[in-house]
Amino acid sequence: MDQTYADFRARREATVWQRLNRTLKVLLVLALWLIIVSLFVPPYKKLMQSRAEIDNLQQQVNEQQNLLAHQTREISLLKTDSTYLETVARDRLDLMKEGETIFRLEAARAAKPKPNNSARR
Prior knowledge:
There is one protein chain. The chain has 121 residues and is mostly helical. The protein has one domain. The chain has 2 helices and no strands. It is rod-shaped.
């Protein structure tokens, strides 16, 4: 009778230590995983910020290239096309030829929103 109790107690203590060892192994794996993740997250965030900045700068470069192309075309027309030069000069100086009618169109202004009377009686 004494023998069975000792075997039972030894088995119970062995399973407790096995459970604790298993739990310790799981915690170690989780700790290692968290360390690895914490080492790679900051550089990844910096990479994403750098890519966003590159996209923004590329957009600015494209806008500047479009502006340059437009101004280069206008300079070319001013140097080579006398009709265009005359039109631009008359437009900037507000001059017109005899018998010519000029219509000036202004850009549409932002319409003021009408106030909503939510408390109508």
